[in-house]
Give the backbone structure.
Amino acid sequence: MTEHTSETIVPSDLLRLSPIASTFLWGLALLAISLIFHSNAEAQQSEFSPFSRYGFGLINQTNTPVATGMAGMETSMANSYQFNPGNPASATFLTQTTLQGSGVGTRLTMSPATGGDATATFGSTGPLGLVVKRKNGKNALILGASNYSNSGYAITRSTEVAGVGAVEERYVGQGGLSNANIGWGRVFRASRYVSAGESDSIRVSFRSLHLGIQTQYLFGQVSRSSTLDIVDPTFLDHRALVTAQHRSISGDIGAIVDQLLRVRYSSKREFESSLALRLGGVYTPQAKLLSDITQLDETTQTLGGIAVNLDTASFSSKLDYAGRMPQSISTGLSLHFDRSDGMRWAAGIEYSTTAWSDVADDMAPELLSDKVNWIDAEALRFGVQFNLGNSEQRNPTWGKASYRIGIAKGNQPFEVNGSPLTYQTASAGFTIPLVGSRSLSRIHFGMEFGTRSTENSDYQESIYRMNIGISLMPFFKNNWLVPRLYD
């Protein structure tokens, strides 16, 4: 006689039977939640600059807190506790699975040439992501979401027109684009023997190649309206509305070469110091852009403060308008010095360019205003990061902190009346251990100060931005992605 039995599998059994699959499912759930959050965030005003009314808005305004502290450097300045969404190769520098996120607060001051500053304070989310990686493994799975651009402004201008009287112009816009990405990274290492004293040697990794590739899905909506309101009710008013929804799938290819230049060991095989050179690069090819664009011009009249539509002057709708997203190239190099007492420093320089002028003819004309043209976006950044030595003899938190500073200059991808929108920033930040976590988790802080303007603009913007985030890693007894030796 055969006895049949049944067994119920509970969620905890699933986690124990397949830790890799369960971690991947958690990552997909996190990505779905972050996409919903970013989609909802874009419907709210997340930028207050009048310059954001052009194109897709202001692009690449938020970074991770670590990158913010070094003027936005993401190409070669990788570390073991936070990865850079802009370079998928940086994920392989992490020691183990890492979840990271941040929040950004911005204070914007607009200073007209005629005087009378205007100030706005607003917030947004920073990049959110998860890297699934076996401790000290060679492969890394990347899941993440981040803001690509932001647009939000409300401008009012009053003038007197002969024969018409007082006229009020209003310009309002909101929205932006987000990025969702999934990718993979792997590191390849080469080792050799170096001398340790006069008669001994030790094997070290003297060169490593970090490669990464990720797929990006760009999506979002940007809308703007302009209203001409004539105070005299005998005249009719005019309003123009433009709404553009965009979507695009592209890819990033990133690489970092870490070359050991010099390393010293004592006769007791104890590490003394090392110097390494890193070269990094990221390439994003051109990609297809699909846009749904609607444009409405209507005649209105303001009754009781509300604009009422009287007649439609014109209406156009372009569905699946085929455009192109530009190719982008970033390159950087940095020097990294380590000493046995924990003192270390790194300094690097980075250049990036995005060829918007190559795709200008493919873009819908509704995306830009009169006398505004697409141009190549460029940025030059310099950053320094350092750790104090003898951390055990210092404060247990600040003695183990990483400090960083940076400067940058560049321009957005458009010019107004023949003058590009340029910016200059100076930044600083630090990273400290998450006290009490009993893991390698850390808290990050970055801030930057800067200005942006065009040569022919009658005002200048001053920006102060703070970025606070966290990187969570498992407690050392939680052997994620490690097969159990017993059940």
